[in-house]
Design a protein that fits this description.
This protein has helices at 2-10, 12-40. It is an all-alpha fold.
Amino acid sequence: MDVVLNLLFSSPIGLLSLFTILFIIGMAIALMVWYKRKMNSPEE
C-alpha cells in the first residue's frame, strides 16, 4: 500500500489521476446540488 500511495503522490501520472478523481467527485456534487435546486423551484 505504501508503494501505491508513493506512486500516486509523487509521479505526474499519479497526480493527474488524483486530480481527475477529485474533479469528477466535485462535479458530481455540484450537479446534484444544481439538479435539486432546479427540481425544487416552481418556475413552470
